[in-house]
Amino acid sequence: SPPPYKAGDIVHGTVTRIESYGAFVAMDPPPPPNDDNYQRPRHYKGLVHVSALRPPEEGRVEHPIDVIKMDQRVVVLVLEIIPPPPLDER
Questions:
Q1: What end-to-end distance do the CA atoms of the chain give, in Å?
Q2: What is the DSSP-derived secondary structure letter of residue 7?
Q3: CA distance 34 to 16
Q4: Left (φ > 0), alpha (ψ -120 to 50) or beta: where does 88 sit?
């Protein structure tokens, strides 16, 4: 099934991992439609690159830990969806 998000969506989520190059965010699933057969999607994760953690006019972020914390609730803008490879290619 297609991902529940598309480029341009604004999504709430939680920081699950922090690396020198950015932070990984587990995005909240979208609200369920009014459909009795609806199956809640799994969590999708996204990477927020270190360069996107602060507006450019506020200066460069040396390390994501300077501006973000584990388990922090955040709001993110989806820029791109990259589907996982088929199971036989993983």
A1: 18
A2: T
A3: 30
A4: alpha
User: Looking at the predicted structure, is the pLDDT value of residue 1 above 90?
Assistant: no
SS3 24: strand
Tell me the DSSP string of 34-89.
S-TT--PPPPEEEEEEGGGSS-GGG---S-GGGT--TT-EEEEE-----PPPPGGG
Q: Tell me: the pLDDT tens digits for 16-69?
A: 999 999 999 999 877 666 666 666 666 688 999 999 999 889 999 999 999 999
Q: Hey, what are 67's tokens?
A: 């501006």
